[in-house]
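Go through this pair.

…
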Amino acid sequence: MYGCRFRTPLGEMVTVIDPTGAVARLEFARGRREEPDLPAVDGTRCAEVMRQLQEYFDGTRREFDLGLNPEGTAFQRAVWRELVRVPYGSRVTYGQLARQIGRPAAVRAVGAANGANPIAIVIPCHRVVGSDGSLTGYGGGLPLKQWLLDHEAGLRRLPLSGVGPERRELPRCR
């Protein structure tokens, strides 16, 4: 496993790349000191992730073309595979995701899987909203989730206002 830390317009992120070159983890580093479990640093192996994220923030990339290999249960991986299919600028509800994976009664489990997503932005857990369209849960706070949705809708441009590296919690989906 290889990893690196790098800056984005939303603050520093950490990525871990597996031996096949697939992304195993991509998280915001806010509030963390050193990553005790960060594998051997290798910026070359992380370069494609960094390039594609920069294009996303620049507004020139709407789909990621990266191999993904997140650790999780079979159920979590099914939810994450479906999340990757949610188009840029779109939103989906937890109930819709549950139906799309063939488990219509598993709405809460879908929410839990969404919250365990280890690959931020690329597996777009920020695109999941409540059944009434309201913003519900995002580990980085609803302002960050709203910023990402607005960015995809073309309503915001960088730099951020009120959402930035000064935040201390580690953003994760919920």
Summary: The beta strands are 2-8, 11-17, 23-28, 40-41, 92-93, 128-129. The domain at 74-152 is CATH 1.10.10.10 (Arc Repressor Mutant, subunit A).
